[in-house]
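Quick illustration, no need to memorize.
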Amino acid sequence: MSDSKQMNQQEVSAEFTSYYLQRATKEFAEDLDKVRTADDFKNDAIHLLVNALQQGTALFSPEEQRRIVESGAEKK
């Protein structure tokens, strides 16, 4: 990853979204498996499920996203 201080907000947002989705799917793995294996779950619903998870990123301000991305870069 490039130096996060040099990243523009679009790059920070993309990096944060990736991080957020990784954390969300790890945290909710058991629940997501139950949803995916339900009798009424169809494969075309995966896109809807991913979009629903991505909506959680809107809870974080651009400043919070940058702080989290920078924090992750320091740990690498």
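The chain has a mean pLDDT of 89.
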